[in-house]
Write the structure tokens for this entry.
Amino acid sequence: MNSPEVLLADADAMGTSVGKPTYESGIFTRPLSDTEVMERFQRLDGKAPFILEKTPTHIEHMDRIRNLFKNARFLITHREPFSCMLSWKVATRTFIQDSGTWGAACHRWKTATEVLIKNHNNPSVMPIDFHDFMSGTEQVGSEIFTWLGLNENNLQPCLEKMKDETRVRVPGVVGESVTGQKTQLNWKEKASVSLICRRTEARWQATFRPR
């Protein structure tokens, strides 16, 4: 298992008409004009009625995305900062490039969570608690499919595909990235997470109410 975003990527293969333009990953983080962005999306293969783009840092570009795509939906997974940064620490050893400093990563978590707090009541946004998803994947997955208007008959096959370890891009690492396992934070890393993220996490906990 990995994340709600992976669940929706699997939904594409199960025939729910969700397009996944992997070659446009991170498009809103590039120095492209609105016209250039729209031209690229208009050339997408398959002309799917849905476009799935799961670049995490796109949360910082929600207003622009809404301006370009009036019917955009945002499925945003929140993870408490200590386990999130634990996962990030593992990921930087393998498949994340140009990851920046530890402090910068903590600030990115803070910025993303502040955006989520600001937008959590917007009808175009569905906040998902990461640990709720991992402990109740089928229930939360059903809620996601319903919210997006996708065919729930395809949910179970998607969930089964998420459990297939042969599909992991970096064997033996992504699982640890998700669950923590053996990796630990040192005292300096813990102090940074606490100093930068603690108050924002408290605000989120006071705000979040499952749908």
Observations:
- The longest strand covers residues 74-78.
